[in-house]
Design brief:
The protein has 281 residues and is an all-alpha fold. The chain is 84% helix and 0% strand. The protein has two domains: 51 residues; 220 residues, no CATH class. It is built from nine helices and no strands. The mean pLDDT is 84.
């Protein structure tokens, strides 16, 4: 009879255990790399923001490029913001009127719409629209310049691309997006008046007085402050993704897409933080 050899039986078990250990170690290494890449990206973003602040307050500011970017961001976005603002007020009025009519509070409709638009709906929805149009445009434009090596050519020719390309875009977004939000609020109230006249008859003067009877300065101030931060975040994210795009042509689409997604997500997160701070105050 052959003697039993434990090594023959244990070898497959050891091989399976080794495979399991290798898989666990590979997963641990992959997670460690993901965490490391995430922390590296955060550090890169902070360094990018510091460079923007540094170049903003340096000499020879690019005023011509700044005003051109204000024109692109502000004037060329007006048609989209106009339609969005008017529809916001119109839909909010049509949806809210039947409920208020059941409680006999139709007279409160203008004030409710005005407060809702100024405090929350106007800034958030307009900022999301701007993140889709302006953020994607910045990401695609700077990404294509990175792919075609135009940014590298500027660096070689002793031209600071941060000062000429990034800073004017970020500042233009920071300045123009709050103005677009106020414009959307005004058109939202105008659209609300149009919606109120679908099943009623109210003059614009009476509607305007009823709307602003319940609006105070403390309603405008938090909305304007968070609108400034919305514009800064949209500009920084769009420029960062485009400026740090890869070398392939696909990276342009990736930069534009990630600028929209991350910019929109940060707008919602910042709005949540702003609401909490305003509620505590």
């Amino acid at each position: 009879m052959k003697k039993f050899s434990p090594a023959i039986k244990l070898t497959p078990l050891l091989r399976d255990a080794t495979k399991v250990t290798l898989k666990i170690s590979e997963k641990a290494i992959a997670k460690k790399e993901q965490v490391s890449n995430f922390m590296t990206d955060i550090a890169d973003v902070f360094l990018f923001i510091l460079r923007i602040f540094k170049e903003t307050f340096s000499r020879n500011f690019e005023f011509r490029e700044f005003f051109y970017q204000c024109y692109k961001i502000g004037y060329k976005t007006l048609p989209l913001i106009s339609i969005t603002g008017a529809i916001m007020g119109l839909v909010l009025t049509i949806q809210s009127r039947p409920t208020l009519a059941n409680f006999g509070a139709v007279s409160l409709l203008p004030g409710m719409v005005a407060v809702s638009l100024i405090r929350e709906m106007g800034p958030v929805i307009t900022a999301l629209i701007c993140a889709g149009k302006i953020g994607s445009g910045m990401g695609a434009e700077l990404g294509s310049m990175r792919v075609t090596e135009q940014i590298d050519a500027m660096e070689v020719s002793s031209t600071n691309p941060m000062k000429f390309l990034v800073v004017p875009r970020v500042l233009a977004a920071t300045v123009m997006i709050p103005i677009l939000i106020l414009y959307a609020d005004a058109l939202g109230i105008l659209g609300s008046w149009a919606g109120a006249n679908i099943k009623g008859d109210v003059t614009f003067g009476l509607f305007f007085r009823q709307a602003f009877r319940y609006v105070d300065f403390v309603d405008f101030l938090p909305a304007v402050i968070k609108s400034v931060f919305f514009g800064a975040v949209i500009g920084i994210v769009g420029c960062y993704k485009g400026y740090n795009a890869g070398r392939g042509t696909e990276s342009v689409g990736v930069a534009a897409n990630s600028a929209v997604v991350i910019g929109s997500l940060l707008v919602i997160i910042m709005d949540m933080i702003a609401v909490q701070i305003t509620d505590m105050l």
